[in-house]
Design brief:
Chain B: Keywords: ATP-binding, Nucleotide-binding, Transport. Chain B: This is ABC transporter ATP-binding protein. Chain B: GO terms for molecular function: ATP binding. Chain B: It comes from Rhodoplanes tepidamans. The complex is a heterodimer. Chain A is built from ten helices and no strands. By secondary structure, chain A is an all-alpha fold. Chain A has a single domain, classed as MetI-like fold. The two termini of chain A are 23 Å apart. In chain A, 35% of the residues are buried. In chain B, helix 6 links the parallel strand 7 and strand 8. Chain B has two domains: 162 residues, Rossmann fold (3-Layer(aba) Sandwich), CATH 3.40.50.300; 67 residues, no CATH class. The longest helix of chain B has 24 residues. Chain B is 40% helix and 22% strand. The chains are: A mainly alpha, B alpha/beta.
């Protein structure tokens, strides 16, 4: 009971704050929660909305899969090789803190105007934190695990898959949680510029028309999706730690 | 058969009896001769007889663990040769099992899966794995905890898991690096009993590294005393215990003599270590 009560109270306070803000800034800039929700229901019934949503979903899914696989693999590679790790960590940290949107024109020139540019941009956001988390988890792993693997005659590949990966999995899941939400951010930013479809485009297009209920409805939907994905990964994290 | 031929036969059996052989083994970290290099170990000459229980005691930082790394094939000697069963040690030799000081049980696997781990990677068939794991888990008194995770066990129990994991691989040489260092005195004595039981059961050669003189005196056939760094053997003490023995020999009058002799040798070395930091 208590576990339901807490989030419900938070939700109620948020809705109340939203409503108060809506009344304070006059209703054209910020639609009320009710108006937003009604617009969302309308959108969910439109084929055009689903076409945009499916574009975003495809780009998001591809970015998540590629950045997760790539981030973990690169993280393991850099973590297992001390020199490579030492050299690349500052580079990765600097790349991570770089405002990546400034590089979007470059991405567009390389990948063109299609979905691949948005996938690439999503990966650019999501992969680095996962790589850093994975790499640091390996550097902090108890050395005795690798020594044990060595004396049991494991090959480097067997060591990576059956010792290193399970040992660092809790940190990898934490990195993936961060990476997944950043992938979504990257894909959406990508869709906002030089794009004719996707939810990011839809938001920009609605904004140009002054259709604020649509802007907020899409934002609300994305927030819900992001929260659900995060909750799922959190549950996975907890299940593993037991 | 001539006398010379007989002598040759005796020689051959002596060679076969020599399970582990270290000749002039030296380990220097860093490039030798440079100011930053550390001469950690040696030269060490040591022959281990097949099936003997040999302990190494020495002051902290004397290179005991380096010696173990060389035997386990985890570290190459800078000079000298290390042989196991007549072959030079290059990489981790088959037939050598190691129990480390730190808890090396994998927290993501149950006790049974931890014990089965090495066998599964080695591609042993499932029925044989089940049989061996069952035996090792039973032998180490872990039967009731086979499905438990290491986090649910005490430190002593986790170390038993690590010993069982080594035992299932049926090693002919077992290396132990201060395996009971983190345990309390009573648990240590009882784990010593377990170790003796395991040693008799497997008839493996055992090399135990320890800082506990009583542990060395109680468990071993021979105890090697190492000097402060660079570690060399300054004495090897024969204990003369029967094969059938357990922790109750601590009340034997000779136990005190052996421990006393070990400490006499070690005292000056430990003082050196204390002074040098």
């Amino acid at each position: 009971m208590k576990s339901v009560l807490g989030p419900a109270a938070v939700l109620a306070v948020l809705l109340l704050a939203w409503e108060v803000l809506h009344l304070a800034v006059a209703n054209t800039g910020l639609p009320s929660p009710l108006a937003t929700l009604m617009q969302l229901v309308v959108l969910l019934g439109e084929a055009e909305f689903w076409a945009h949503a499916s574009q975003t979903a495809q780009a998001f899914a591809a970015a998540v899969v590629l950045s997760t696989v790539g981030g973990i693999a690169l993280g393991i590679l850099l973590g297992m090789n001390r020199t490579a790790g030492t050299v690349s960590e500052p580079i990765l940290v600097n790349l991570y803190s770089l405002p990546k949107v400034t590089l979007y024109p470059v991405v567009l020139l390389i990948f063109g105007l299609g979905i691949s540019a948005r996938i690439a941009f999503g990966i650019m956001h999501g992969m680095i934190p996962l790589t850093l988390f994975t790499m640091n988890a390996i550097l902090q792993m108890k050395p005795v695990y690798r020594r044990s693997a060595a004396v049991m005659g494991l090959t480097p590949w067997q060591t990576s898959v059956s010792v290193v990966l399970p040992a660092i999995l809790p940190e990898v899941i934490t990195g993936a949680r961060l990476g997944v939400s950043l992938c979504l951010l990257g894909v959406l930013i990508g869709e906002m510029f030089a794009s004719r479809n996707g939810l990011g485009y839809m938001v920009m297009h609605a904004m140009e028309r002054g259709d604020m209920p649509t802007v907020l409805a899409v934002a609300l939907l994305l927030a819900i999706v992001a929260l659900l994905v995060n909750a799922a990964l959190l549950a996975l994290d907890r299940a593993w730690r037991h | 058969m001539t006398v010379a031929a007989l002598a040759e036969v005796a020689d051959v059996s002596a060679v076969e009896d020599r399970h582990v052989r270290l000749a002039g083994v030296t380990r220097v970290f860093g490039r030798p001769g440079t100011p930053k290099s550390v001469h950690a170990l040696g030269p060490i000459d040591l022959d281990l007889r097949r099936g003997e229980f040999f302990s190494v005691v020495g002051p902290s930082g004397c290179g005991k663990s380096t010696l173990l790394d060389v035997l386990a094939g985890l570290s190459k000697p800078t000079e000298g040769t290390a042989e196991f069963e007549g072959r030079p040690i290059d990489g981790v030799p088959a037939g050598v099992g190691v129990v480390f000081q730190e808890d090396a049980s994998f927290p993501w696997l149950t006790v049974a899966d931890n014990v089965a781990f090495g066998l599964r990677r080695a591609g042993v068939d499932a029925a044989e794995i089940a049989r061996r794991v069952d035996y090792a888990v039973g032998f180490m008194g872990l039967k009731a905890f086979a499905g438990a995770y290491p986090a649910q066990l005490s430190g002593g129990m986790r170390q038993r898991v690590c010993i069982a994991r080594t035992l299932v691989m049926q090693p002919r040489l077992i290396l132990l690096d201060e395996p009971f260092g983190a345990l309390d005195q009573q648990t240590r004595l009882l784990m010593g009993d377990e170790l003796l039981r395991l040693w008799r059961e497997t008839s493996a050669t055992v090399l135990l590294i320890t800082h506990a003189l009583d542990e060395a005196a109680m468990l071993s056939d021979r105890v090697g005393v190492m000097s402060a760094r660079p570690g060399v053997f300054i004495d090897v003490v024969e204990t003369g215990w029967e094969v059938e023995r357990d922790s109750r020999i601590v009340s034997h009058h000779r136990f005190g003599d052996i421990t006393g002799r070990l400490w006499e040798k070690l005292r000056t070395e430990s003082l050196k270590h204390l002074r040098d930091g």
